[in-house]
Structures
1.
Amino acid sequence: MVGSAIVIGAGIVGAACARSLAMAGLDVTVIDRSTAASATTARGEGNLLVSDKAPGPELVMALAAAKRWPALVRELADELGDGFPGIEYEPKGGLVVATTEDGAAPLLRFAAAQRSAGVDARELSVPEALSLEPDLNPAITAAVHYPQDAQVHPVNAAEALLASARRHGARVRQNVNLSGPILDANGTLLGIATNEGELRADAIIVAAGPWSGEVARTLGVTLPVRPRRGMVLVTSRTPKRIFHKVYDADYVGAVGSGDAALQTSGVVESTESGNVLIGSSREQLGFDDRLRVDTIAQVAAKAIRLFPFLADQAVIRTYGGFRPFMPDHLPLVSPDHRMPGLWHATGHEGAGIGLAPITGELIAALIAGEAAPCDPAPYSLARKSLEPHLTAVA
Amino acid sequence: MAARMLPSEKDPIQPSSSTTVSITVDGHVATGILGQSIAGIMMAGDRLGFRQTAKLDRPRGVFCGIGVCFDCLVEVNGLSDVRACQRKACDGDVVVTARDPQPRGGAA
Amino acid sequence: MSEVLVIGAGPAGLAAARAASDAGASVVLLDSSDALGGQFWRHLPETRPARNEKYLHHGWSTFRALGEALESSPTVTIIRSAQVWAIEVFDGVAVHAVIGEPDGARRERRVFRPDALVLATGAHDRTLPFPGWDLPGVYTGGAAQALAKGERLAVGERVVVAGAGPFLLPVAQSLTRAGSRVIGVLEANRAARLARGWSPRPWQLLGAAGKGLELAGYAAGHVRHRIPYRLGRAVIAAHGTDRVESVTVAKVDAQWAPIPGTEHTLKVDAVCVSHGFTPRIELAIAAGCELTPNRFVAVDGNQRTTTDGVYAAGEITGIGGVDLALAEGEIAGHFAAGFATESVSAPPTAAIRRRRAFTGFAHRIEAAHGIRSGWSDWLTDSTLICRCEEVDFGSMRAAAAATQSESFRSLKLGTRAGLGICQGRMCGRTSEELLCALNQNRELSDGAMSDRRPLASPLRIGELAHLSSQKTARKGTP
């Protein structure tokens, strides 16, 4: 019988795990070496997307998440009341466009495949796309509308999940540093050593996003999670002229790519506060967080290609974050077969905000031995596609 | 009237005779001295509120005066987000003050 | 010829450019304004020269001499209206600037890859929030100075100057010389603290003779204009419908907490409030320079920062006034040129001596006038903390309580405090301190800092995008 759990990492995935585990009746402690919701969670746009996912296990999870979020938002609002910072869940829908002649057919093929996997993907004519987004560049060659795409305020959502976890008895301890595992003679993980003493639990869950590889190494196992950096631009407040999450179809290619080199695509949306968020870039540079002007310049150029009026808009801030990249592009929600007592909830790359609730529910179900919200096999550490990476990463 | 220009003839530093510059602010002609900021010309014309804020609909004008606070933003010749305290007035500049774009509720 | 780039043409930057040029380097001097002198020597535009401008300025002849030397030097390039918006650090620094009218849309883009860089970006006023501080007619001291010196505009007819620090005196002086009636200068600190700050080492004030004279001059000016100078008092609220009409003044205790029952109202048409200065350190942070515990740029005896080839001078290394800035600038420029040209020349001993004389001054200002925590007692729940995003104190308190967050970033993103177009320049440090106090005075521990702004200035997206197609010559990097 599993009665207690420690979650390492107080980002949105850790917060969702903590909430689900606490609601399942476990005694839960969340630790973070820094503070809650302030690393990867605080460095993204808050995407809840189905549109960028090809048919397969990640799409299955995304569809489940898309269905789950509205109810979750209501639950959290009921629990936490009006005084809590708003989660800003907005089912605004996505609009994916091709900006080149060559790009049109692949986008439409991709959408057709998604449709057969249960995605609401509506092919639009150019005039139809312009009626959804009047300021969109009319030179687009194809467009697909995805009503299931949504957006959320990622930090407030993570803080809400944590606050809810606390209400169900979880403890959140910030600024606690992990120093090593506590193992029994058989190699079963009994707990962790930290700078604030030993903590013991039946299940230890690594939910440290791009730092999960580091945490796993400290605990004595390898994990092929790597940081992949993404940059976002924020404009000054502007009258609302962008109504959906609008991106060029290059984005799908960039998300799915394993290439370490810089990839950019135009991803544009407005937020509740009136700013426009502009992405996106993906590059593997380790944890190097220095500004790269070329990267944000490329992102800016692609945004203007989608919405020409943005050229005269002021950009006031840029921020970058590290996403937990997996070599096979699938999240990891799984026990660690190499070390009993150890679990992982990580590797969502840029989809962690959206997939967090299902991840939390899946890990809680697996740990508590209850019915899982989806088939856990594709997200297992023991999956075939990860095999070479578990040995290759020493 | 609060803010006002010190007339050259009363000024102990004795500025030279000055060239004027004319701009329009929300359609009204405002005249200043060449080399003045748009903010200075507006203030000297007893215009202290340069915009209405998004959330509380309150007036804002010059605060820091040196380009740091961004409170004095106006639209100049069709371009938004111009700091009136930093932009020197040019003859014929069309300045528009406005209510800020409003966020649609949600968290503060 | 080796190149030294100087950012900022205030006292420190001018001195640095001059010294670097004298030491044999080719110099490029950038400033966001269209004139030299910085905020300290803000003056009338070239199109409106004044016969007696020195009347408004301390050290005007020094400024004129520096300006003329630089403008006539064949090895110095002065680029005005140059807004530096980013610094990249990869095998040397790359300084990105746009050149043209402020907040324009199609400015010229330039990338500088100097052999050495001197940062002399100065400081801006720090004003603590109080009810009504967002009303038009409430200004920082710097605004009153800039408009008075740069345009001969008085911000009001009947003005109160309030806050803390010796720099309130020149603000009052500029106002009276532009035609305002200053009905009082209110210093929050009490006599005992000022005495403790200023008197334990009186010889330092003697050493800083210039500074003593500068302040003595202001004091004499006050006497002449009969401006009351009151200690232990603060403006705790401003009132008016669409502009300031009156302020509430109260006595404050040694910690700056207002003393109930001492409030009274003054009718004014403008109020200038400054409680100190915030150094403009975003470019230094972008260049990878380490900071001191008080969040100034850390420098060694040669004004060298922790980033190779990057030097810093003036208010970004400590708030010490013009004379210290001039000395530091000269030293920084000298050693930056040495770094750039890989040569060693005799150290600028006179400047080093002057710097030593004024170094204590910065500490003394902080000891005598530094912000005390009791001020937050004058806040109400509806007082705006973040002016841009209109985040009030009540919602910050509520968010901190609801989330129990110890993270500045989370609270910032949760409340939007500091996320507006000024990017926390006005409220950043105040928000940090308030959130820290709300968090049982535990340090906000996520390492997020309101001073970090990789984008150092807004830029049009079209201007940024243009860079992606523009190839720049890179020295020594692929």
2.
Amino acid sequence: MAENDQVDEKKLSAAARLFDVRRVIGGLFVVYGVIVTLIGLFDSQAEIDKAEGVRINLWMGLGMLVLGLLFLLWLRLNPPKTPDPSDLDTDDDRPPAH
Amino acid sequence: MVTAAESGLRLDLDLFDYLILVLYFGTVLGVGFAARRAIKTSADFFLSGRSLPAWVTGLAFVSANLGALEILGMAANGAQYGLLTLHYYWIGAVPAMVFLGIVMMPFYYGSKVRSVPEFLRRRFNRPTHIFNAISFAVAQVLIAGVNLFALALILDALLGWELWVSILVGAAIVLTYITIGGLSSAIYNEVLQFFVILAGLIPLTIVGLVKVGGIDGLFDAVRSGPLGDAALHTWSNTGSSADNPLGANWIGILFGLGFVLSFGYWTTNFAEVQRALSAKDMNAARRTPIIAAFPKLLIPAVTVIPGLIAVITVKGLGADEGDLTYNNAIPLLMRDLLPNGVLGVAVTGLLASFMAGMAANVSGFNTVFTYDIWQAYIKKGRSDEYYLRIGRYATIGGVVIGIGTAFIASGYGNIMEYIQQLFSLFNAPLFATFIVGMFWKRMTPWAGFWSLVLGFIASLALYVAYLTDAIAFNSALEQSFWGAGVAFVTAVIVAVAVTFFTPSKPDDELRGLVYGLGGTSGGEVIVSGEKVWWRNPVVLGVTAVVLALALYIPVW
């Protein structure tokens, strides 16, 4: 029984850590989005010409910003389930007693 | 040696590009430190403690494959062989990934093995195990060399360093990256990196397509160019191997690539299977490769298409050596088309993917070296800490050998040809042994051993015959298809023949390892009982295969 508890605890700490991959992706992409959008706003004509007239920095910057925000929103709507062990069980397919 | 700076491959990064690069590696190292504090046991280090949700392991699965192989190699193939390269995705990857999830994963995950060689030891015997462990370890460090070489190409392009300096620096970066976090942070980073790579390749493709006048403009230009119309069809010119740029006929593509090479790679490659073994339960493990199949369907849009764009827009692409080899298609396009800003993202994505690709090989290598060679045959029964330490030494050793094999890879103009060569040698016989062993319980331990060894020798013999011009093929790729086919057939015949002269294992020892005997965890069967359809591996898998076939229609 004690061994089972230990396994559960380990699973939870690992799960809590890894659910947060959404926070890392979201955070990095928001920062990237802001940087690249700003570069895009102030792009010189030479840079726009290099990209065949496409304002690629602006568009990609906005795209990355939106992706980053979506990940953060997902994290907000569906936060990591560390505190309550029963949540973890409903989320996967193991029988409750594993 | 000609450096990139002399002939102009050099990319002009500005302050913001470097800021984007630094932010990424800062994030990755931060995650590594955090993960390292949380790692307590060697099972954690090697398998991430079997705790991850399926979307995470699925993206890690596809990302582990999105290394040098995919990005430089598939763009190189796109430039050289046109749309025939799509076969590597739709027939050469997706069906095998689905097969892995539906049919084979119950045996891997359910038997709780930590590695593919370990599975062979339990199914067959120790000689089979040691032969596979060693050949796997060799294959991993050879492929790690390809990734390191690709990483060095980018460093060379960025900074204008000599190739050997770039290789040494690249190796040092990879070593830091793996020793800090192990597989746990590797999987974590792979998911992050997946999005960064796409954020770099998508603008490259968009701007490239604008330059050549959209898809129609691109196809018109290819049709009237040296590749010709044959490069725009996937199947219709494969009746004879002489009619298409790939130089292979449909039998070679279907059997060699679609069946043996692809199933061999995806179903027995531990660097890949390891991702699924980290999933939190059986169903998540089975969905891992299937979830990965969906992005895999679409990745050619940002690898093969840029390869074709490069062959149209970059004058002189396809040189045997120097900066205009096919391998450089993507870096050359980045130089020509991307303004600072997205250029930084693209460089970050490429560097990250090569690093992670090599890290995946090295972590596969250290797992097999530690558990399957060192623990099984050299020092048995030591403490967990001891093997964790050996694992870290193996990582250092793997990176050092990777430096040597990077120089071997640098001798090939198209690294994809080299890598297919490696697969036809190492993976094709393994797949044959596996598939017979999994479905035929009578197959004996010694049949396993001899089918692996003789399959390997058959493929090697064909390769040597090709190198010495004893047998002619239309292209190195065609040779690798046939090499894989010959290895597979040899291995199957040997497996059956030897079985008739040697004793089988009793059923009890094979439970959970062979189809039809039961004993996998929870009585798993091929058809899953998952209630929600979008979590059912079979439904998801069939959808992926149907999509792959449908995507072929417009480019028949």
3.
Amino acid sequence: MLDKDGIARRIAKEIKDGYYVNLGIGIPTLVANYIPANLQVVLQSENGLLGMGPFPFEGEEDADLINAGKQTITTLPGSSIFDSALSFGMIRSQKIDLTILGAMEVSENGDIANWKIPGKMVKGMGGAMDLVASAKNIIVAMQHINKAGESKLLPKCTLPLTGVKCIKKVVTELAVLDILPEGGFKLLERAPGVSVAYIRSATLGKLYASDDVPEMQLD
Amino acid sequence: MINKVVSGADEAIRDIAEGDTLMLGGFGLCGIPENCINALVKKGVKELTCISNNAGIDDFGIGLLLKTRQVKKMISSYVGENSEFERQLLSGELEVELIPQGTLATRCLAAGYGMPAIFTPAGVGTEVAEGKETRSFNGKEYLMEYAFEADFALVKAWKGDTAGNLIFRSTSRNFNPVMATAGKITIAEVEHLVEAGELDPDQIHTPGVYVHRIFQGEHYEKRIEKRTVRPKE
């Protein structure tokens, strides 16, 4: 079973040279730590920055320079800054190659829910609805089961949706899965030490899995 | 040049009235019109509708207006950092319209560009789409979203000149330039106010035609919401 950093490490392997990438808040943010140094990758922060650099050195933080998670950050040689309308313009017009975001639930037909629990928690969708509606390549980083032990990979989402039929790949602490165009989760890789039977028991949505699904390679 | 300078925040917001709709620039606490917000708290004007990506935190930014119950309705995309906001929302005391961040920005843009509506795929098939007109282009469905109408836009820039031209700094730009174009009356507060002619016309982000009042703000706190650093090597 993977920890959060393990999920981030596995997702980082999906990033290719020359990609512009948008990382959501939470586990997706950790992915930045595992992008191989030999790849040329530009991170977008949807508040209006391309070329997000690391956290500033202590004492050098700048209140005017933050990422979409409101953390102080730095720019890099070649960075650019723009307003929020242009930021979502480049998202809608599919200039961003890969979007990685978190989810509370994902369904077997590719629906995603991640912004609201009615009556309990309302944080808002932020840029998530824009991203999932437009991005051509989305990976969801999420926990396979919630704190109550219930599957978050479902036949149908129970929470208010963020987007419909938009998710094609999911990486969890247990597995890497594709969502098939005709519906259903296809198990591609198992986390180290996790059996197909266990993944099956943790997946409420329809799961397609062969008996010889490989274990994921993290390095 | 037409001189847009007013004496300060109190004069700039003097005619904001009960029930008005305001746009407030900023993302999180970054690039928010601190002086205008403080002046609104002092003035005590109520029943405001505020269009702003976020709602501040409990003791800073729009959070101050929420605490004094001056806000009737918020139109935002993400409000997760403000517990008083969440409390007022869940209890029904505060009217809230949550909309996608790109939709929020582009509805401002449409207003400033003189276009009545936009079509966006964001929110199709979700509760955001309820009651809204949809149209299909090239086999994909889009929501029609209207340009915002705001009585006032309150924005914060780094530098501005007496003619109302604005330059923003770093990611404090965010929603400020698009909101600046969208207010019936746009009020800009700046860290540095200079004479017309001192800014390079090629470097200006917002042309002064969009700005009706400008003043140099005082005592910018520029609070950091999440201070993240790495140790010096």
